[in-house]
Each structure stands twice: as C-alpha cells, then as structure tokens.
Amino acid sequence: MKLPLSIQELNSEHARLCLDIEKFGNLKSGTNFASQKLLIAVSGGIDSTALLIISTLLARKSGGRVFCAHMDHNLREESCQDREFVEKLCSNLDVPCVCKSEDVSDYAVNKSVGLEEAGRILRYNFFNECMKKFDTSFLVLAHHLGDLCEDVVMRLIRGAGWPALGGMDAYDPGRKLLRPLLTTNKLQLEDFLKSIDCPWQDDKSNFSDKWTRNRIRNHIIPLLHNENPSFGTSIARLKSQADQDQNYWNCEIAKSLKKLEQLDGGEWLAPCSLLNKSHPALRCRLFKKIIEMLGKGHALADSITLLENAYSARKTGAVFQFPAGKTATITRKGIVFKISQRY
Amino acid sequence: MKLPLSIQELNSEHARLCLDIEKFGNLKSGTNFASQKLLIAVSGGIDSTALLIISTLLARKSGGRVFCAHMDHNLREESCQDREFVEKLCSNLDVPCVCKSEDVSDYAVNKSVGLEEAGRILRYNFFNECMKKFDTSFLVLAHHLGDLCEDVVMRLIRGAGWPALGGMDAYDPGRKLLRPLLTTNKLQLEDFLKSIDCPWQDDKSNFSDKWTRNRIRNHIIPLLHNENPSFGTSIARLKSQADQDQNYWNCEIAKSLKKLEQLDGGEWLAPCSLLNKSHPALRCRLFKKIIEMLGKGHALADSITLLENAYSARKTGAVFQFPAGKTATITRKGIVFKISQRY
Question: Which residues in chain A touch residue B228, judged by CB atoms under 8 angstroms apart?
Fold first, then answer.
C-alpha cells in the first residue's frame, strides 16, 4: 500500500474531512492538538485505521508527532493478523508502534469481571504505559458518530441523567483523552480509506449478539435510523447541547463549592445560606459533586433525590448513606458530608 | 358489570394505586385536582377505562365531579362498539358522557394533514368544546408510563433538546391538561380492571405498523426493555429531572426577560449588559423564548445555535430569519428581535 504523504495529495472532499476533524479536535481540546505528541489507539478496524492515517497527515501539517498503540486481546483466532496489519501500516506511515498481547479471558476470570470490562481495564492500563513512555499529550481514540449514537442509547437504557445522557465526551482532560472523530460518520471514514486504497481488518465479533453494545448497534440503531435517517445529526446536536449544559453546571457548582465550610476531620458543611438560595436542580448536582469529592464511589440519582427531598422538607437529623462509607447529615446549619475513617 | 362505589371497596393494593395516582396528580398540578370538575377523555381501551373509574372514585372521595368525552374517529369498522361501551360504562358510573363522531379521514384529506394529526386536532377541538360546556378545571388524559417511554424515544429520534427530551408533561397549565397516570405502569391498570371485573375495548389499530408510535411501541421499546427490565423506572426518573431542570430554566429565563427593553413597533432589545453576563446555555434558551413570545412559529435548535455563535463572535449587523417573519439582528447594543408587519 502506498499511502498519501500529505493532505495536499487527498481529493478536496477528504482534505476537507481531515481539516474538519482537526477543527473539531481543536475546539474540544482548546488547543492545536495536532501540533503535539499523540498516542493513537489502533485496533486495525476501519475507524482506527482511518484515525491513524488522518492524525499522521494532520501532525505532518501542524508539527506534531504520532505514536501507535495496539493491544491483542487474544479473544479471536485471527487477532494476530490484526497485529501484523497494524505493524505494517505503522511502518508504512513511519509511526513508532507498540503492541502488547494480553490474556483478557484470564484476567476476567481472575478478577471476576466481564470480558468487556476486562478488555477495557487492560487496554487503558497499556495505553497509559505507552503515554508515559512516549510522553504524549493526548490519547486519541477512534470513536465516531455511530459510537456516540450507541452510547446515548446505552445511557438512556441504563438510566443516565442530564447532561451525561448526551454521551461520551470528545475531550476528557483528566484522562487526556481525545475523540476527534466523534461527530464524523463511519461511512465517511470507510470512503476515505477506499479512496486512498488502504485496506483494514474486519472484526467479526462486531456481529455477535453476545455484547450489549453489538445488540444496540445491530438491532436498535437501525430501527431508529429507519424512523429518522438524520438520527446521527440529531444525536450530534444533543451532544453539543449536553456539553454546553455540562459547562454551565460546572460553572455554577464551582461557585457553590467556594461557599462550603471545611470542618474538623475532613468533614464539609454545605451551609443553609448557600442551599436555601440554590434551586433543587443545582442542589442535586452539587450534592453529587461533593460526594464524588470525598473519594471513590458514585452516588445513585435516587439517593441524591432522597437527600434533596429530605432537605426540602427540613428533616433535621436525617442521615443518608452513600457508597464507600460516605454520609450526608441534615443539621440546623446545613448538610454535613463526611467519609467514615474505616474507608 | 357492577363497579366499586368507593375506594374502600378496593383491595389494599388497588386502593394504594388510586391514592398514589391522586398524590402524583396533586403534586404536578399543585392543587387537589380530584376535588374539582374533571373532563376525562375516554376511548374505551384499558388505560382510559381505568382512568375514568379511578377518577370517579377519587372525585367521590374528594368532592370533585367527573364528566366523560368520547370521540369516534370512524377509522375502524368496530368503532361504534367503543362508543356503546363508553356510554354504558358512564351510565354505570353515573357520569355525564358526551360522544361525537368525526370523519377523520375526510378532514385529513381536506386539510392535507396526516391521519394522526387530523385525529389529534379534531379530538382536542372536541375536548375543548366539552370543557367549556361543563366548565371543567382539567382535561384528564390516560397517558401512562409506557406512553412516556415511547414519547422519550420518539423525541430522541426527532432530535428534541433538553429538557423537552424528558417527554410529555404530566401537567400543562396552558391547556389545563393533566396526566395523573404518567408514572403508572399499564400492567397495573390492566390488573386493576381485572380485579374489579371491568371489561374494556381492544383497539386493533394498536398493532398496525402504519403508525410511527406503534412501530416504536411494538418493535423498539421491547428491545430497550430486554436490555433493562427497569427501563420504565429509568424514564420516570429522567422525566422527574427534566421537570426540575425545566423549572430551573423557567426561573432563569423569567429573570432575564425582566431585563429586555421594549422598543418602538413591538421590537425587543436583549441588551449586551444582560447577554454578556449570561452563559450560552441560558442565552440559547432565552433566544428561543423571545422568538416564541413574538408570535406563532418555533425556531429550530440549529437556527438558535447560529444566532448564539454569531453573537459570541460579535458579528454586529448579522440578521437571522426565523419562521413567520421573525428576525433577530445583532447590533452594538445587543440583539433586536422583531416580527415583520406582513405576518
């Protein structure tokens, strides 16, 4: 395979695709990401193959450097072919590539987690090692608009609230994770690879109904698309509103956090003076944030609602338990949040 | 059929069901609705038959009065049997009943609207006539948790934003519309009717894939339930958060509206002093509200986003067109909203 060396070698449609992807990634990360060191996670499928080539072209244009990480999950017989494909592709692109083989089934059994979860843990452990090794600024993932649609449906099924319902983030600063293809159609990626005569590996496990994600992709999403062929566009718009609202609530929560009072023993008081002038919509989100700040373990939406209802009804003395030994106690001064020393 | 005369005659489970429905309706309407005059819309199916009986029992307890309205759509051969059933049921319950026959197909053809839309228009026209005739405080509708789930999926498909994505309202003060069954399971309603030996009419058109709503109900919802048997509970929780957020944004928008300046000729100025200290999440919702206030015709989310982006980029002089001759012009003082006199 003879791959393009620069964006100028692409036809105008695909040059535009690359530039749109760069623009989206820049907007979301707030920086010119392609001018930096990028670790691209590549399975060898359409999405990540296209991502690797597009990132390489953008980095050449903008002065960045691209590294590749590939993990063999050893869940399919043909997975070693994927590894060979990715190594060949990287050699062709002159991109340093690290591959690692993990026994995902074994890990899943030993740690009593599902196969999907085991794969996820091992994959991100490996990616994080690679990020340290190459000192990269971003872990770049190939999730596209189809993945975003599935994720929104998955979150709807599982009962996510707003704005989490809007789906996975294009940029996660904590994990330095960037998804520049998140509003790009998979068909555009396939079309791009075909136009430059670049092959890819097919993952047959994508068709198995063993995985929730596949059942959503293969059975539910087509029905939604049948009702509205622009379903993907609707979901991209929803995500954009979710990002805007997430930013809004982050700002409001940040203002409120400044008014918390730290008590002895790592306890926090959310004083009545703060809570009484806050709307329940803000209070519920603030409670969630404070409980997260205390340490690991998230509070369920229903538990937060119980706390909110009790506070609204001024149930002084009521104590609410949250995961990992965290509690919230309604007092005359406000709500005291703490974590038990046993945890 | 010999129907119960009071809640005391029900078993404890169904007495509890009736009281929970009353509590939910009171919470949402902010008043003891069952002590007032209620118009119940009854098709004769499970949901509305149960609603009519439950409303009657609640009204007897709380001092209200119940009236019934039934419209024959003439879309199915057996629809006159539904009318006979509803009339018999009302006579049994000692509830005044008004029935009307409409040629929905004819209206759809003449007005060039779809059959569903035609049915909806004629039905609500009829209900509004009945509300005037009986001077009722609420139009009570039988939408239940299953309907809410379908509505959320329908809105997701059609690209609704937040909080509209949370689904139809349990209470619409403008239309005096109340849906006290909105978080009740259809199975509970069926179980209730069976326990009091009350029959109902089956609507065979519920199984036809001709209607979007039926395709969602019969094909998409079962797949979502397969993934999470508590899908309904998740949707009820989402709706509750949507109501909370809707109330939040209504409060914020009301504060902002006080800062608009009325200009000559029915124009409104949203001054920079207001807009610059408002977050984009609030600004977009405020723009939408102002455009609605100018007169009929809603703005698309994408048009609102274009206006927001142009304002953020300070594109002074830019003019944006909205439906029904409405415009927004970015000026140095802020954004001027107006409606052309031709409309």
Answer: 157-159
- Contact criterion met (CB below 8 Å) for B155 and B168: no
- The residue among A40 and A264 whose pLDDT is bigger is A40
Tokens of B342: 């031709």
Q: How many domains does chain A have?
A: 2
- The verdict on residue B255 lying in a domain is no
Helix (H) or strand (E) holding B270: strand B268-271
Residue A159 marked ligand-binding: no
Give a yes or no: residue A71 inside a domain: yes
Asked whether residue B238 falls in the same domain as residue B265, the answer is no
**Which residues of chain A does B286 touch, with a Cβ-Cβ cutoff of 8 Å?**
none
Chain B residues with CB under 8 Å of a chain A CB are 152-153, 156-159, 161-163, 165, 212, 215-216, 219-220, 223-224, 227-228, 230-231, 233-234, 237-238, 240-242, 244-245, 247-248, 251, 279-282, 284, 301-302, 305
pLDDT tens string B86-130: 999 999 999 999 999 999 999 999 999 988 899 999 999 999 999
Nearest-CA distance A114 → chain B (Å)? 16
- Residue A302 confidence class, pLDDT cut points 50, 70, 90: very high
Local structure of B67: helix, strand or coil: strand
User: Residue length, chain B?
Assistant: 343
Residue of chain A with shortest Cα separation from B280: A244
CATH number at residue A82: 3.40.50.620
Residue B254 lies in a domain: no
In this prediction, residue B234 carries a pLDDT of 97
| Contact predicate A43/A67, CB 8 Å | no
Question: CA B210 to CA B52: how far, in whole Å?
Answer: 29
User: What would the pLDDT profile of A193-210 be if each residue is shown by its tens digit?
Assistant: 999 999 999 877 777 888
Quick one: B225 and B331 in the same domain? no
In terms of CA atoms, which chain A residue is nearest residue B213?
A: A227
Asked if residue B80 and residue B25 are part of one domain, the reply reads: yes
Task: For residues B264 and B331, state if they share a domain.
Answer: yes
Residues A87-96 have pLDDT tens digits of 999 999 999 9
Give how far Cα B247 sits from Cα of A230, B62, B242, B313, Å: 30, 28, 8, 30
Do A215 and A322 lie in a common domain?
no
**Residue contact B157–A234, C-beta within 8 A:** yes
Computed over every residue of chain B, the mean pLDDT equals 95
Report the chain B residue with the minimal C-alpha distance to residue A229: B157
Smallest Cα distance from B281 to chain A, Å: 6
Domain carrying residue A306: 260-339
Residue B63 shares a structural domain with residue B203: yes
Asked if residue B29 belongs to a domain, the reply is yes
pLDDT at A78: 78
How distant is the Cα of A200 from the closest Cα of chain B, in angstroms?
A: 31
Instruction: Say if CB A247 and CB A254 are below 8 A apart.
Output: no
Residues A197 and A279 in one domain: no
Contact criterion met (CB < 8 Å) for B237 and A281: no
* Same domain, yes or no: B209 and B289: no
